[in-house]
Every structure is written in structure tokens, then in C-alpha cells.
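Exercise 7 asks you to align residues with C-alpha cells for two separate proteins.
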Amino acid sequence: MWGTPPIPAPTTTRAGHTAVMALRFTVQGDDERECAEGLALLQSLGLRPAMLPRLLTDNRWMARAVPTTKAPTVTDDGRGPVVAG
């Protein structure tokens, strides 16, 4: 135990950490209807449901949505799509 070296710090160039961005958007509501309305709003913004409204143990409702396209990666220059404004 005394001769065990300390745990090394994680490297900052991990491919799994910097190459892919996992985006999740969450909706919370007081009831199922309110949560479903929030999820429908996320869908209208171009997201797709990942978790339908579900009652959690602390008596709140939650739903999740994710983008329909992958996030840009380092090989894509990391800037994402260009949108005219």
C-alpha cells in the first residue's frame, strides 16, 4: 500500500473526449402533459426523442431529445455547419 504510486492524471488528448460531443436536451415538467409539450417543442427545433416522458422517483416528469445529426468532429474542422443569418 505504501509503495503504490499515485493515480496518474488523465491525459488531455483522449480521442473519446475531444473527438465526439454527446448532446442531450432535457425537459422537466410537473405532469406528463407538460413534459410531452416540452418534448414536442424540442422536436419542432429539429431534435428527436431519446427518452419519452417518464415519471422519476422524486415525483417529477422528464424527457430527453438528441440532435438528428452528429456533432462536428476534429476532422470536420470543429466549426459545424454554416448558417446564413
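Second protein for Exercise 7:
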Amino acid sequence: MAGIKSSTVGVKRRIRNAPIERTNVHSLKLVKNYICQDTIDALEYLLYEARKGELIGLVYGGMHKHHSCIVDAVGAGYRDPLFALGVANLLTDVIATRARNDESHD
């Protein structure tokens, strides 16, 4: 926006005095810089299924090594957004369960 400048002059920062609750803090696992054979195998399987005509759409998310990501829906996943949302919700549930199980091992 032209003509609008952002400034922090005169703004007081609030400092949290209470300790951070451990239940709200999650550690991040660093992704190592390597070629992931599991990823290659999964993509080859999906391609095989698509070429057979069994896989008619995708809802996907991919993680790049520099902490960026790509998400999209193609085929039936693009044409039928409600079906795509259902698939995405199933994926969310599976990953959330896996994350909860990983945290219980800490």
C-alpha cells in the first residue's frame, strides 16, 4: 500500500512472565538432506495405478528440502472438491494419529 509506513516507535512489547507450558511446545524434527526412496516408491506406485486407470485423482502435499511445500488436487480431486476434502481429512487424521503416537515415545 503506497504511502503507508510500518513503524514500531513507541510500541511496547509485552513479555510473557509465565513459564511456557510443556504441553503446548512441540519439538521440530529436522529433515535430512537426502534422496528418499520411500517417496520415489510411493510416486512410482501412484503412477502405476494411474496408468492402469485405477487412480483417477490426487489430493497431495509435498515437502521440499528447504522447508517449502507444494499442495494441490488433480483429476477427480480437482473436479470434486467435497471428495477431495474428505480425502484430505482422512490424511490429516492419519498424520495426526502418527504425530500423537510419536510424542508418546518422548
